Amino acid sequence: xxxxxxxxxxxxxxxxxxxxxxxxxxxxxxxxxxxxxxxxxxxxxxxxxxxxxxxxxxxxxxxxxxxxxxxxxxxxxxxxxxxxxxxxxxxxxxxxxxxx
Length: 100
Description:
3 helices, about 100 residues
């Protein structure tokens, strides 16, 4: 279902934002799903290796960039250690494991 513009933003602010920004929202229900998650090269059937299709691995990663403070941040507030070490935690390094 493609969402239409609501009459006023308070009806559905997300739908309204998507509409006025020119984005299209798509909504659907998933009743059943499966996923193939593992590491290493493809393990196809021998008969598949002769097919004229690409096979391989598409490595993905999550990487943080340097933090950008809010322009309206109160003077004197410094970058917390848990933010400074965020990228190291993503890479499995010795980062802060607390929530705050």
